[in-house]
Design a protein that fits this description.
The protein is mainly alpha-helical. It folds into 2 domains: 44 residues; 37 residues, no CATH class. The chain is built from 2 helices and 2 strands; from the N terminus they run ααββ. Strands 1-2 form a two-stranded antiparallel sheet. A hairpin with a 6-residue loop joins strand 1 and strand 2. The longest helix is centred in the N-terminal third of the chain and has 37 residues. The protein is elongated, with a radius of gyration of 32 Å. The chain starts with a helix and ends in a 21-residue tail after the last strand. It comes from Pseudoduganella rivuli. GO terms for molecular function: DNA binding. Belongs to the histone-like protein H-NS family. It is found in: Cytoplasm, Nucleoid.
Length: 97
């Protein structure tokens, strides 16, 4: 039967092997990238604009109020969960005209 310490030793050995394999793969990838860059005459500055352009966020326009409680002055746009002051009442009675 294998003990906990033996499993930990195997895990450490495998982690070392994985790390060395990763370093080797990174080294090969860097070499391939450098070869391609030399072949096409590219510099790091040429790669700066590569990728998807950033999305520009448009500011949202405020949603107009659709319902108003005349007694309290509270309003609601009609979006999302209905407010407590509107529970059990007909929404059409509170429409802003």
């Amino acid at each position: 039967m294998t003990t906990y310490q033996e499993y930990q030793a195997k895990i450490a050995e495998l982690q070392n092997l994985a790390e060395s394999a990763r370093k080797e793969e990174l080294s090969k990838a860097k070499e391939q990238i450098a070869t391609i860059m030399r072949e096409y005459g590219l510099s790091l500055a040429d790669l700066a604009g590569v990728g998807k352009p950033a999305k520009t966020l448009k500011p949202r326009a405020p949603v107009p109020m659709k319902y108003r409680d005349e007694a309290t002055g509270q309003t609601w746009t009609g979006r999302g969960r209905a407010p407590k002051w509107l529970e059990g009442k007909n929404k059409d009675d509170f429409l802003i005209k």
